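TICKET: design request
STATUS: open
ATTACHED STRUCTURE:
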């Protein structure tokens, strides 16, 4: 299963990447919108782990592009803010499957991503 991690904090992204690799996922890390779009153009992705607030680019633009380019890709949003804590993100982003805090233990995040990436 191929997973795209879009996280501005490279150290955090690599931590998630290691935990996903332990579950047998092929995790690719992008730190900007441009990198993420480039990967979505070239690679088939099952799940996108997407930080809601990126230093370079827009998480919404990435999710929107993924819904067009790879409609079966599921998005797991992560954030360290209270934006959309009411669950309204699921009304705005049709390919959103989960919404987690950035402080979620990496092993829990990896298990959730693995779950959503499995064929149903």
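STATUS: resolved
RESOLUTION: sequence designed for all positions
ATTACHED SEQUENCE:
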């Amino acid at each position: 299963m191929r997973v795209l991690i879009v996280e501005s904090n490279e150290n955090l992204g690599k931590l998630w990447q290691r935990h996903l690799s332990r579950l047998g996922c092929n995790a690719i890390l992008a730190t900007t919108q441009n990198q993420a779009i480039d990967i979505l153009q070239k690679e088939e992705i099952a799940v996108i782990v997407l930080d809601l607030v990126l230093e370079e680019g827009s998480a919404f633009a990435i999710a929107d592009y993924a819904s067009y380019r790879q409609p079966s890709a599921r998005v797991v949003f992560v954030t360290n803010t209270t934006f959309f804590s009411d669950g309204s993100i699921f009304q705005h982003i049709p390919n959103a499957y989960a919404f987690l805090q950035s402080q979620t233990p990496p092993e829990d995040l990896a298990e959730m991503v693995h779950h959503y990436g499995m064929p149903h």
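CLOSING REMARK: The chain has a mean pLDDT of 89. Helices lie at 10-22, 33-42, 59-69, 89-92, 106-117.
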